[in-house]
Amino acid sequence: MEKCFIQMRAYNDEKTIKRAIDSVLMQDYPNVELIVLDDGSTDHTGDIVKGYDNPNVHYVRQQNKGPAGAFRAIVAETLRRADENDYIFSLDGDDFYTRRDALSGTVKRMKEADANLCIIGMEFSGDRNFILQPDAGKKHNGVVERLARKGKAANIMTAPFIIDADTTLWSKVYRKDMLEKYVGMLPEFAPDLKVCEDFPATVMLLMKDAKIVANPDIFYGFYKRSDSITSKPTVANFERDRIQFIKMTQQIVDENRGEFFGVAPYFIKSFVKAKYDIISGIVENKVKNGDLPADYGKEKFQETFRREIRCDFLETEEKNNAEERRPVSARQGFLSGSVKAGTER
Question: What is the pTM of this model?
Answer without folding.
Answer: 0.84
